[in-house]
Design a protein that fits this description.
Elements: H1 3-20, E1 32-36, E2 43-47, E3 94-101, E4 104-112, H2 117-138, H3 146-159, E5 163-170, E6 191-200, E7 203-212, H4 217-234, H5 243-256, E8 266-268, E9 288-297, E10 300-309, H6 315-318
Antiparallel strand pairs: 1-2, 3-4, 5-6, 6-7, 8-9, 9-10
Helix pairs in contact: 2-3, 4-5
Length: 323
Protein backbone atom coordinates (compact mmCIF):
# COMPACT_ATOMS: atom_id res chain seq x y z
CA UNK A 1 0.00 0.00 0.00
CA UNK A 2 1.05 3.57 -0.57
CA UNK A 3 1.56 5.73 2.54
CA UNK A 4 -1.78 7.57 2.02
CA UNK A 5 -3.63 4.24 1.62
CA UNK A 6 -1.94 2.81 4.71
CA UNK A 7 -2.85 5.89 6.71
CA UNK A 8 -6.48 5.74 5.55
CA UNK A 9 -6.72 2.05 6.45
CA UNK A 10 -5.23 2.73 9.88
CA UNK A 11 -7.89 5.37 10.50
CA UNK A 12 -10.68 3.00 9.45
CA UNK A 13 -9.44 0.15 11.62
CA UNK A 14 -8.96 2.47 14.59
CA UNK A 15 -12.52 3.77 14.18
CA UNK A 16 -13.89 0.21 14.13
CA UNK A 17 -11.92 -0.67 17.26
CA UNK A 18 -13.29 2.43 18.94
CA UNK A 19 -16.88 1.55 18.02
CA UNK A 20 -16.49 -2.04 19.13
CA UNK A 21 -14.61 -1.05 22.27
CA UNK A 22 -11.83 -3.55 21.66
CA UNK A 23 -8.10 -2.79 21.71
CA UNK A 24 -5.75 -3.06 18.78
CA UNK A 25 -3.09 -5.65 19.53
CA UNK A 26 -0.80 -4.90 16.59
CA UNK A 27 -0.20 -1.75 14.53
CA UNK A 28 -3.10 -0.95 12.14
CA UNK A 29 -0.64 -0.93 9.24
CA UNK A 30 0.06 -4.67 9.59
CA UNK A 31 -1.56 -6.83 6.92
CA UNK A 32 -3.41 -8.98 9.41
CA UNK A 33 -4.92 -8.07 12.75
CA UNK A 34 -6.27 -10.74 15.05
CA UNK A 35 -9.25 -9.87 17.23
CA UNK A 36 -11.70 -11.73 19.40
CA UNK A 37 -15.33 -10.68 19.14
CA UNK A 38 -16.82 -9.38 22.41
CA UNK A 39 -19.90 -11.53 21.73
CA UNK A 40 -20.02 -15.29 21.63
CA UNK A 41 -16.26 -15.67 21.78
CA UNK A 42 -15.93 -15.93 18.00
CA UNK A 43 -12.62 -14.93 16.47
CA UNK A 44 -12.60 -12.05 14.01
CA UNK A 45 -9.70 -11.78 11.59
CA UNK A 46 -9.25 -8.50 9.73
CA UNK A 47 -7.31 -8.59 6.47
CA UNK A 48 -6.86 -6.60 3.30
CA UNK A 49 -8.60 -9.43 1.47
CA UNK A 50 -12.36 -8.61 1.76
CA UNK A 51 -13.37 -12.27 2.02
CA UNK A 52 -11.53 -12.52 5.32
CA UNK A 53 -13.66 -9.87 6.96
CA UNK A 54 -16.47 -12.31 7.67
CA UNK A 55 -15.95 -14.43 10.80
CA UNK A 56 -18.26 -17.00 9.17
CA UNK A 57 -16.17 -17.46 6.01
CA UNK A 58 -12.60 -17.75 7.29
CA UNK A 59 -11.49 -21.37 7.57
CA UNK A 60 -8.57 -23.01 9.41
CA UNK A 61 -5.63 -22.70 9.44
CA UNK A 62 -6.25 -18.95 9.08
CA UNK A 63 -8.97 -18.82 11.72
CA UNK A 64 -9.47 -20.24 15.15
CA UNK A 65 -12.99 -20.29 16.53
CA UNK A 66 -13.25 -19.97 20.30
CA UNK A 67 -16.64 -20.53 21.88
CA UNK A 68 -17.85 -20.15 25.44
CA UNK A 69 -17.30 -23.38 27.31
CA UNK A 70 -14.67 -24.75 24.91
CA UNK A 71 -12.07 -26.85 26.76
CA UNK A 72 -8.51 -25.61 26.80
CA UNK A 73 -7.50 -28.53 24.56
CA UNK A 74 -9.45 -26.90 21.71
CA UNK A 75 -6.89 -24.08 21.74
CA UNK A 76 -3.85 -26.26 21.08
CA UNK A 77 -2.88 -24.11 18.10
CA UNK A 78 -2.02 -21.29 20.48
CA UNK A 79 1.49 -21.95 21.76
CA UNK A 80 2.60 -21.03 25.29
CA UNK A 81 -1.04 -21.02 26.38
CA UNK A 82 -1.66 -19.53 29.79
CA UNK A 83 -5.11 -19.29 31.33
CA UNK A 84 -5.24 -16.75 34.13
CA UNK A 85 -8.93 -16.91 35.02
CA UNK A 86 -12.18 -18.66 34.15
CA UNK A 87 -15.85 -18.00 34.80
CA UNK A 88 -18.17 -20.75 36.09
CA UNK A 89 -19.13 -21.27 32.43
CA UNK A 90 -15.54 -22.07 31.46
CA UNK A 91 -14.98 -18.89 29.49
CA UNK A 92 -11.32 -18.10 28.95
CA UNK A 93 -10.75 -14.51 29.97
CA UNK A 94 -7.08 -14.08 29.11
CA UNK A 95 -4.78 -16.00 26.82
CA UNK A 96 -1.10 -15.56 26.10
CA UNK A 97 0.69 -17.17 23.21
CA UNK A 98 1.94 -17.03 19.66
CA UNK A 99 -0.70 -17.01 16.94
CA UNK A 100 0.27 -19.08 13.91
CA UNK A 101 -1.00 -18.02 10.48
CA UNK A 102 0.28 -19.82 7.38
CA UNK A 103 3.02 -21.35 9.52
CA UNK A 104 4.45 -17.96 10.48
CA UNK A 105 4.29 -16.47 14.00
CA UNK A 106 2.50 -13.15 13.54
CA UNK A 107 1.29 -12.23 16.99
CA UNK A 108 2.56 -12.66 20.52
CA UNK A 109 0.34 -10.74 22.88
CA UNK A 110 -2.07 -11.02 25.73
CA UNK A 111 -5.49 -11.47 24.12
CA UNK A 112 -8.54 -10.37 26.06
CA UNK A 113 -11.54 -12.64 25.60
CA UNK A 114 -14.42 -10.87 27.37
CA UNK A 115 -16.28 -12.79 30.03
CA UNK A 116 -19.46 -13.60 28.19
CA UNK A 117 -21.16 -15.86 30.70
CA UNK A 118 -24.11 -13.46 30.94
CA UNK A 119 -24.64 -13.37 27.20
CA UNK A 120 -24.39 -17.13 26.82
CA UNK A 121 -26.71 -17.68 29.76
CA UNK A 122 -29.29 -15.37 28.18
CA UNK A 123 -29.03 -17.40 24.99
CA UNK A 124 -29.47 -20.55 27.05
CA UNK A 125 -32.75 -19.23 28.48
CA UNK A 126 -34.02 -18.59 24.94
CA UNK A 127 -32.96 -22.02 23.70
CA UNK A 128 -34.62 -23.80 26.61
CA UNK A 129 -37.78 -21.71 26.25
CA UNK A 130 -38.04 -22.76 22.60
CA UNK A 131 -37.62 -26.40 23.60
CA UNK A 132 -40.32 -26.12 26.28
CA UNK A 133 -42.77 -24.53 23.84
CA UNK A 134 -42.11 -27.15 21.19
CA UNK A 135 -42.85 -29.95 23.64
CA UNK A 136 -45.99 -28.29 25.00
CA UNK A 137 -47.52 -27.62 21.59
CA UNK A 138 -46.69 -31.10 20.35
CA UNK A 139 -49.10 -32.25 23.07
CA UNK A 140 -51.78 -29.69 22.13
CA UNK A 141 -55.03 -31.24 20.98
CA UNK A 142 -58.48 -29.85 20.46
CA UNK A 143 -60.57 -30.42 23.53
CA UNK A 144 -57.71 -29.32 25.82
CA UNK A 145 -58.68 -26.38 27.99
CA UNK A 146 -56.84 -23.09 28.09
CA UNK A 147 -55.66 -23.73 31.64
CA UNK A 148 -54.45 -27.22 30.74
CA UNK A 149 -52.36 -25.77 27.90
CA UNK A 150 -50.93 -23.04 30.13
CA UNK A 151 -50.10 -25.65 32.78
CA UNK A 152 -48.45 -27.83 30.14
CA UNK A 153 -46.19 -24.96 29.04
CA UNK A 154 -45.23 -24.22 32.64
CA UNK A 155 -44.49 -27.91 33.29
CA UNK A 156 -42.32 -28.24 30.19
CA UNK A 157 -40.49 -25.04 31.13
CA UNK A 158 -39.84 -26.42 34.61
CA UNK A 159 -38.37 -29.57 33.03
CA UNK A 160 -35.68 -27.45 31.36
CA UNK A 161 -35.01 -25.38 34.47
CA UNK A 162 -37.14 -22.31 33.73
CA UNK A 163 -39.87 -20.55 35.63
CA UNK A 164 -42.69 -19.38 33.41
CA UNK A 165 -45.68 -17.04 33.62
CA UNK A 166 -47.93 -17.63 30.64
CA UNK A 167 -51.32 -16.52 29.34
CA UNK A 168 -53.09 -17.91 26.28
CA UNK A 169 -55.54 -15.73 24.33
CA UNK A 170 -57.92 -17.38 21.87
CA UNK A 171 -59.27 -15.58 18.83
CA UNK A 172 -60.59 -12.09 19.53
CA UNK A 173 -59.22 -12.23 23.09
CA UNK A 174 -55.77 -11.56 21.62
CA UNK A 175 -56.71 -7.90 21.12
CA UNK A 176 -57.38 -7.46 24.84
CA UNK A 177 -54.81 -6.68 27.56
CA UNK A 178 -53.49 -9.56 29.62
CA UNK A 179 -55.71 -10.45 32.51
CA UNK A 180 -57.78 -13.23 34.10
CA UNK A 181 -60.04 -15.03 31.64
CA UNK A 182 -62.65 -17.72 31.95
CA UNK A 183 -61.40 -21.15 31.04
CA UNK A 184 -62.52 -22.54 27.70
CA UNK A 185 -61.76 -25.46 25.45
CA UNK A 186 -59.43 -25.10 22.48
CA UNK A 187 -61.33 -25.93 19.32
CA UNK A 188 -60.25 -26.81 15.81
CA UNK A 189 -59.67 -23.61 13.83
CA UNK A 190 -58.74 -21.51 16.87
CA UNK A 191 -55.83 -19.12 16.57
CA UNK A 192 -53.92 -19.00 19.85
CA UNK A 193 -51.75 -16.13 21.01
CA UNK A 194 -49.31 -16.95 23.79
CA UNK A 195 -47.70 -14.29 25.93
CA UNK A 196 -45.12 -15.66 28.34
CA UNK A 197 -42.16 -14.68 30.49
CA UNK A 198 -39.39 -17.26 30.89
CA UNK A 199 -37.00 -16.67 33.77
CA UNK A 200 -33.96 -18.29 35.31
CA UNK A 201 -31.57 -16.75 37.86
CA UNK A 202 -32.85 -13.25 37.21
CA UNK A 203 -32.72 -13.44 33.40
CA UNK A 204 -36.16 -12.86 31.92
CA UNK A 205 -37.17 -13.11 28.26
CA UNK A 206 -40.66 -12.12 27.09
CA UNK A 207 -42.17 -14.34 24.41
CA UNK A 208 -45.08 -13.68 22.07
CA UNK A 209 -46.06 -16.52 19.74
CA UNK A 210 -49.04 -17.28 17.49
CA UNK A 211 -50.12 -20.91 17.17
CA UNK A 212 -52.67 -22.52 14.84
CA UNK A 213 -54.85 -25.52 15.58
CA UNK A 214 -55.27 -26.24 11.84
CA UNK A 215 -53.83 -25.05 8.54
CA UNK A 216 -55.06 -21.57 7.63
CA UNK A 217 -53.34 -19.99 4.65
CA UNK A 218 -54.52 -16.46 5.38
CA UNK A 219 -53.18 -16.60 8.93
CA UNK A 220 -49.98 -18.30 7.80
CA UNK A 221 -49.44 -15.59 5.20
CA UNK A 222 -49.94 -12.90 7.84
CA UNK A 223 -47.58 -14.71 10.18
CA UNK A 224 -44.99 -14.79 7.40
CA UNK A 225 -45.35 -11.01 7.06
CA UNK A 226 -44.79 -10.59 10.79
CA UNK A 227 -41.67 -12.74 10.66
CA UNK A 228 -40.31 -10.74 7.71
CA UNK A 229 -40.96 -7.49 9.58
CA UNK A 230 -38.94 -8.77 12.53
CA UNK A 231 -36.12 -9.94 10.27
CA UNK A 232 -36.00 -6.50 8.63
CA UNK A 233 -35.84 -4.78 12.02
CA UNK A 234 -33.34 -7.22 13.53
CA UNK A 235 -31.01 -6.67 10.56
CA UNK A 236 -30.66 -3.04 11.69
CA UNK A 237 -29.75 -3.85 15.28
CA UNK A 238 -26.05 -3.13 15.72
CA UNK A 239 -23.89 -0.84 17.86
CA UNK A 240 -23.97 2.77 16.76
CA UNK A 241 -27.08 2.36 14.59
CA UNK A 242 -29.85 4.96 15.09
CA UNK A 243 -32.50 3.38 17.28
CA UNK A 244 -35.23 5.43 15.57
CA UNK A 245 -34.54 3.59 12.31
CA UNK A 246 -35.11 0.23 13.96
CA UNK A 247 -38.37 1.52 15.36
CA UNK A 248 -39.39 2.97 11.99
CA UNK A 249 -38.67 -0.33 10.26
CA UNK A 250 -41.41 -2.04 12.27
CA UNK A 251 -43.80 0.90 11.98
CA UNK A 252 -43.31 0.86 8.19
CA UNK A 253 -43.89 -2.89 8.15
CA UNK A 254 -47.21 -2.45 9.94
CA UNK A 255 -48.17 0.20 7.39
CA UNK A 256 -47.29 -2.12 4.49
CA UNK A 257 -49.54 -4.79 5.95
CA UNK A 258 -52.46 -2.37 6.12
CA UNK A 259 -52.52 -2.29 9.90
CA UNK A 260 -52.68 1.21 11.34
CA UNK A 261 -53.11 0.28 14.98
CA UNK A 262 -50.52 0.95 17.70
CA UNK A 263 -47.17 -0.76 17.16
CA UNK A 264 -44.83 -1.65 20.01
CA UNK A 265 -41.51 -1.92 18.18
CA UNK A 266 -39.26 -2.86 21.08
CA UNK A 267 -38.82 -2.89 24.80
CA UNK A 268 -36.02 -3.98 27.11
CA UNK A 269 -36.17 -7.68 27.88
CA UNK A 270 -38.16 -8.21 31.04
CA UNK A 271 -41.42 -6.53 30.18
CA UNK A 272 -44.09 -6.09 27.53
CA UNK A 273 -44.93 -2.41 28.00
CA UNK A 274 -41.63 -0.59 28.60
CA UNK A 275 -40.95 2.40 26.30
CA UNK A 276 -39.20 1.52 23.09
CA UNK A 277 -35.75 2.89 22.30
CA UNK A 278 -36.64 6.45 23.33
CA UNK A 279 -33.79 6.76 25.87
CA UNK A 280 -31.19 6.00 23.19
CA UNK A 281 -30.04 8.03 20.20
CA UNK A 282 -27.99 5.08 18.96
CA UNK A 283 -27.93 1.46 20.01
CA UNK A 284 -25.35 0.60 22.63
CA UNK A 285 -23.38 -2.61 22.81
CA UNK A 286 -24.70 -5.06 25.43
CA UNK A 287 -28.29 -3.81 25.29
CA UNK A 288 -30.95 -6.50 25.05
CA UNK A 289 -34.24 -5.63 23.36
CA UNK A 290 -37.36 -7.54 22.53
CA UNK A 291 -38.95 -6.58 19.22
CA UNK A 292 -42.67 -7.18 18.64
CA UNK A 293 -44.61 -7.27 15.40
CA UNK A 294 -48.32 -7.94 14.97
CA UNK A 295 -51.07 -7.79 12.34
CA UNK A 296 -54.75 -8.83 12.49
CA UNK A 297 -56.14 -11.87 10.66
CA UNK A 298 -59.19 -14.08 11.20
CA UNK A 299 -60.39 -11.97 14.13
CA UNK A 300 -57.09 -12.60 15.89
CA UNK A 301 -53.91 -10.67 16.44
CA UNK A 302 -51.07 -12.50 14.70
CA UNK A 303 -48.00 -11.69 16.78
CA UNK A 304 -44.41 -12.76 17.26
CA UNK A 305 -41.43 -11.50 19.23
CA UNK A 306 -37.66 -11.62 18.87
CA UNK A 307 -35.21 -10.94 21.68
CA UNK A 308 -32.12 -9.31 20.23
CA UNK A 309 -28.67 -8.76 21.65
CA UNK A 310 -26.97 -5.63 20.31
CA UNK A 311 -23.73 -7.25 19.18
CA UNK A 312 -21.26 -6.87 16.36
CA UNK A 313 -22.48 -8.00 12.93
CA UNK A 314 -20.16 -8.08 9.96
CA UNK A 315 -22.32 -5.35 8.43
CA UNK A 316 -20.67 -2.74 10.65
CA UNK A 317 -17.51 -3.33 8.63
CA UNK A 318 -19.41 -2.67 5.41
CA UNK A 319 -20.23 0.82 6.62
CA UNK A 320 -16.52 1.65 6.52
CA UNK A 321 -15.91 0.06 3.15
CA UNK A 322 -14.20 -2.94 4.70
CA UNK A 323 -16.71 -5.72 4.18
Amino acid sequence: MTPPQEEARARRVSRIAELLEIPLFVPPSDRRILKFSPFGGNGLLLSEDPILFSPFEVEPPDYLELRVGDPVEELSRLEELMVTSETPYGVLSRLEGTRILDGEPVLKEVLSVPLEGDVRFLESVAERADKALSRAFEELSTGMSRRELEASIQARAWEVGLRCDVAIAIGEESFSPLGPREDRVVEKGDVLLMRAMFEDEGYTIPYVRTFLTERDFEVENRLGMVMQALRDAVSLVSPGYPSAEVRDALVDAHRRFGFSGPAVPASPAGGFSAPAFEPYEVLQRNQVFTLFAAVPARKSLISWSATVLVSIPVRILDRFGLG
